[in-house]
Amino acid sequence: MQGLSLNPRWTDWTGKRVWIVGASSGIGAELARTLLARGANVAVSGRRADALAAVVEGQPRGLALPMDARVPADWVASHDALCKTWDAVDMVVFCAAEYRPLRPWEIDAEEARRTVETNLCSVYYGLAAVLPAMMVRQGGSVVLLASVAGYLGLPNATIYGPTKAALINLAELLYAELHPHGIGVYLVNPGFVKTRLTAHNDFAMPALQTTEAAAASILSGLARGRFEIAFPSRFTVAMRLLSRLPYRLRLRLLQRLMKTP
């Protein structure tokens, strides 16, 4: 029943207008391909125009819309263009991300700026562009792609992890503020997914999933109207439980995960 769901349930994608930002590869690209196959109109955005064109190649309902998510004016211009083409946007999926495994003593100022602006600031730029129209319509949905790395301070995620923790916090307050206005807010927390970002890791990644499996899990969660869509379930439940341990236990366990320099 709809009343038992925290959000609207997305079961029929026919004709729906979905904008995926950060869709030139990985989860975003796979989600775009899957939604196109289900009958949605899908716009894909990112900095790599050739990769975007490949995602929607041969798809009359697909639209490649190159932009830099780190530039506020790009969000406004792209949203205006979509509204002229589609009249309105039903769902915006925030997938843009940067990641490089770093320990605290390896922090680089430029790397930190670029990662925070891509993973976090770009979401604020996008919300500033799309929410006013959704508020007028009293409808629409936003999907934030965070990570289980935002649950707690994991090794190698010195910059990436805090940006994802911020997105988790942001999704919660967005839901509280926007739900009364008919706007859906969905938080996606994947575990390890095989993408160009996780290819940087030089350690064994437990419960590593394909992008196809990740896209299927996201669509399953959207169909159920869930607020948090976390997968794979066993891994994400274990991480959530670890994050709720008292600091005396949690920090000791985290230290065991760390490798000495």
From TrEMBL:
GO terms for cellular component: membrane. One of its GO terms (molecular function) is oxidoreductase activity. The keyword Transcription regulation does not apply. Keywords: Oxidoreductase. InterPro entries: NAD(P)-bd_dom_sf, SDR_fam. PANTHER family: DEHYDROGENASE/REDUCTASE SDR FAMILY MEMBER 7B, DEHYDROGENASE_REDUCTASE SDR FAMILY MEMBER 7B. Belongs to the short-chain dehydrogenases/reductases (SDR) family. This is SDR family NAD(P)-dependent oxidoreductase.
